[in-house]
C-alpha cells in the first residue's frame, strides 16, 4: 500500500469529521434505527461523504458502513478486501455534546485490518496505523509522531471503559481495583489511548459490531498492542455475524488480563 493512499484516507476521515461538526453541540434531532440505536444527521453526512470519497479513491474496493443496508451487510461475506467504516462512532456521546466521538475507516483484507484511521473531529487529532509500518498520531499544526504502547505497571494501571455500555462485570472491576485509575470514554478513542501509551487495558463485554473496532484495532496492533476474545484469539473480521464477541484490548500482552477482569 502506498503512503499516498494512507494520506488520502486520513484526509477523507478529516473531511467527514468536519461534516459532523455543524450538527454538534446544539439540539440534534435523533432517529431510532431498527435495533433502537440512535442515528443523527451527522452520521448520515459523514457516511455519504466517506462512501463517495472512497469510491472515487479506490473504485474496485467495496465499502461497508454502519449505515449500509442489511443486504450489503450480508453481501460482504463474498468480499476478500473491503473498506469497513463507522462514520460516527459514539453517537450517544455526540448527542450529549461530549466530543467523545470518532470517524473510523479500516481496510480489511481477509480476516483482519491492514490499515486503520481514527479521527477525532472535535480535537482535530488523527490516529492511523498499519501492521509492520507502525502507528502515528497527527495533532493540528504539528508534525505526525510515531506512537507505541507502554509496558503495564500493575500497581498503576489505567483502565478505559465505555461510558455508555460498560456493564456490571467491568463496573465491578473498576470498583475493585483501587490502585488503578480509570477513564470512561465514548467510542474507539479507548483503543487510541492504549495505542499512545496513556492507558493499559480496555475490557469490553457488551456488544460491538465490526465497524466499531476494525480501524482502532489496527492502530493499536500497529502500536504494539492486541485485541483478543476471552479465549485469547485475535479479534477477526468478515465473520458470519457482524457482532464481535466480548474482547480485551491491551498494550502489553504479559499480564493475565482475563484473570484481572475476573478477580482471580
Ligand atoms: N446492543 C448493541 N448491539 C450492537 N452494538 C452495540 C450495542 N450497544 C452498543 N453497541 C455499539 O457500541 C458502540 C458504542 O460504544 P461505546 O459505548 O464504547 O462508545 C456503538 O457505536 P455507534 O455509536 O457507532 O452506534 C454501537 O455500535
Ligand atoms: Mg460505532
From TrEMBL:
Q: Which PROSITE patterns match?
A: IMP_1
Q: InterPro entries per the record?
A: CysQ, CysQ/Inositol_MonoPase, Inositol_monoP_metal-BS, Inositol_monophosphatase-like
Q: Does the keyword Membrane apply?
A: yes
- Membrane topology annotation: Peripheral membrane protein
Compartments reported by the entry:
Cell membrane
Q: Does the keyword Cell membrane apply?
A: yes
Instruction: Name the principal localization, coarsely classed.
Output: membrane
Q: Which GO terms describe its cellular component?
A: plasma membrane
Q: Which CDD domains match?
A: CysQ
Q: What are its E.C. numbers?
A: 3.1.3.7
The cofactors required by this protein are: Mg(2+)
- What's a single GO MF annotation on this record? magnesium ion binding
| Binding locations of Mg(2+) 1 | 66, 86, 88-89, 212
Instruction: Note the superkingdom of the native organism.
Output: Bacteria
Keywords of this entry: Cell membrane, Hydrolase, Magnesium, Membrane, Metal-binding
Which Gene Ontology terms describe the biological processes this protein takes part in?
A: 3'-phosphoadenosine 5'-phosphosulfate metabolic process; sulfate assimilation
Q: What class of enzyme is it?
A: hydrolase
Q: Which residues bind Mg(2+) 2?
A: 86, 89, 212
Q: Report residues binding substrate.
A: 66, 88-91, 212
Question: Which reaction is this enzyme known to catalyze?
Answer: adenosine 3',5'-bisphosphate + H2O = AMP + phosphate
Mention any Pfam family matching this sequence.
Inositol_P
**The family this protein is said to belong to:** Belongs to the inositol monophosphatase superfamily. CysQ family.
Chain's role: Converts adenosine-3',5'-bisphosphate (PAP) to AMP.
Protein known as: 3'(2'),5'-bisphosphate nucleotidase CysQ
Amino acid at each position: 500500500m502506498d503512503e499516498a493512499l494512507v494520506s488520502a484516507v486520513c484526509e477523507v476521515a478529516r473531511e467527514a469529521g468536519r461534516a459532523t461538526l455543524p450538527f454538534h453541540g446544539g439540539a440534534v434531532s435523533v432517529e431510532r434505527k431498527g435495533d433502537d440505536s440512535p442515528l443523527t444527521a451527522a452520521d448520515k453526512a459523514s457516511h455519504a461523504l466517506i462512501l463517495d470519497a472512497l469510491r472515487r479513491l479506490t473504485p474496485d474496493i467495496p465499502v461497508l458502513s454502519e449505515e449500509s443496508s442489511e443486504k450489503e451487510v450480508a453481501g460482504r461475506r463474498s468480499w476478500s478486501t473491503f473498506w469497513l467504516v463507522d462514520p460516527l462512532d459514539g453517537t450517544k456521546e455526540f448527542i450529549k455534546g461530549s466530543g467523545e466521538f470518532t470517524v473510523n475507516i479500516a481496510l480489511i483484507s481477509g480476516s483482519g485490518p491492514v490499515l486503520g484511521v481514527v479521527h477525532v473531529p472535535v480535537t482535530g487529532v488523527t490516529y492511523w496505523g498499519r501492521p509492520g509500518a507502525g502507528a502515528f498520531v497527527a495533532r493540528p499544526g504539528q508534525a505526525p509522531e510515531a506512537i507505541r504502547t507502554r509496558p503495564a505497571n500493575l500497581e498503576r494501571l489505567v483502565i478505559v471503559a465505555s461510558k455508555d455500555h460498560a456493564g456490571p462485570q467491568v463496573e465491578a472491576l473498576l470498583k475493585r481495583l483501587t490502585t488503578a485509575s480509570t477513564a470512561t470514554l465514548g467510542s474507539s478513542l479507548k483503543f487510541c489511548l492504549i495505542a499512545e501509551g496513556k492507558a493499559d487495558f480496555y475490557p469490553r463485554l457488551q456488544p460491538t459490531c465490526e465497524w466499531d473496532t476494525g480501524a482502532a484495532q489496527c492502530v493499536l496492533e500497529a502500536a504494539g498492542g492486541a485485541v483478543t476474545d476471552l479465549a485469547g484469539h485475535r479479534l477477526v473480521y468478515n465473520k458470519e455475524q457482524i457482532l464481535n464477541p466480548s474482547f480485551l484490548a491491551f498494550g502489553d500482552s504479559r499480564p493475565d488480563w482475563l484473570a484481572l477482569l475476573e478477580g482471580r
